[in-house]
Each structure stands twice: as C-alpha cells, then as structure tokens.
Amino acid sequence: MPIYYYKPKFFSQSTKPVDVYDDDDNAVFKIARYHKSNWDKFRVYDQEHFSVYDSSNNEIAYSEQKTRFSRPKWEVRFGQSLDDSLTFTNMSTFTKHNYEFDYEGKSFELRKTLGSTINYLYVDGSEFASVTYGSKLLSFNNPTVYIEIEDESHIPTEALICIVQTYNGVGK
Predict the structure, then answer these.
(1) CA–CA separation, 12 vs 140, rounded Å?
(2) How far apart are CA 104 and CA 142, in angstroms?
C-alpha cells in the first residue's frame, strides 16, 4: 500500500514547486500552483490551477478551474500527452465537503466530514484511498499531507495527487 506525502508552502499563492515523497523518502513528484495570466496573481478570489511534474520536471498532470460560482468545477488532465481528462465538481453541503468525478466508467468521491483531519476517496461506494493532515493546532506551518492508496488500479497516482492538491487549494 503506497504512501505519498508532501508539505504545502506556507503562502498559499506561492508558485514554487513542492516535492512529493514516496514511503522510501524519494522525491517522485512535484506540485506547483500556476497562474494562467499575470492578472490571476492580483485577483481578490483564488483561481486554483495546479500542475504535477515527474522527477525529470515533465508536466504529467494539471488542474484548471473552469467555473467559480454555484458548483465550482475543475478540469484535470493527465496521461500520455495529457490526453486523459476528468471533471472534478464541488458537491458540498453545510456539514460535508464532497467532490465528485467520473473516470473510465467509475464514480469517484472525495469526502470529508466537518472537523475531521482525514479525507476519504471512494470508488463506486468503497474506500480506496485516504488523505490525512498533520495537526494544525498551535502551528504556523501548513500540515504535512499524507496520501495512502490501498488500490492504485482505479486512477493514475499523478491524477490523484493533482486532485488532492486542488481540493486542498480550495479550502478543506
């Protein structure tokens, strides 16, 4: 069961890449926020766009916010030549933060209960991964994010990491 972890930048608008490590402490991916234009840097509300790079600094996945209002949506692209895509949609309610997407005929859901430090990812109703955050209590640092994947066959790892970082960027 692979585990990946990373520590997000303290300043959420930073475009500097963050290393993602595997359970052997090898840097296997990098995550970076990017701005579509210079105007994105100055917007009052956050435009959430992220890229995932492999260890050779080749872009292997990215997310781009498509709609901002009512039910925000992001397009996530990944795979060979970034040909595969999915739409990641906010389906949150007052007490739960739920995001949904479909990939290869399967329904996925990223779910978190209010006040919890653990998110769960489900495919067709059964859990296949979890995302845990280090403690935020009395800390000026962002918590370390741990992604534990029970079954990697459902979705490529780089796409999953991109989805998790996009979810983190819009506010847990």
Answers:
(1) 13
(2) 34
Q: How many CA atoms within 13 Å lie on the side-chain side of 127?
A: 12
Which helix H or strand E contains 164, and what residues bound it?
helix 157-169
CATH number of the domain located at residue range(s) 3-169 in this protein = 2.40.160
Using alpha carbons only, what angle is made at residue 156 by residues 61 and 69, rounded to the nearest 5 degrees?
55
Contact 32, 50 (CB under 8 A): yes
Would you list the domain boundaries of the chain? 3-169
> What backbone torsions phi and psi does residue 106 show, to the nearest 5 degrees?
-110, 145
The tens digit of pLDDT for each residue in 103-161 reads 999 999 998 777 778 889 999 999 999 998 875 555 556 788 899 999 889 999 999 99
pTM of this structure: 0.82
Three-state SS at 117: coil
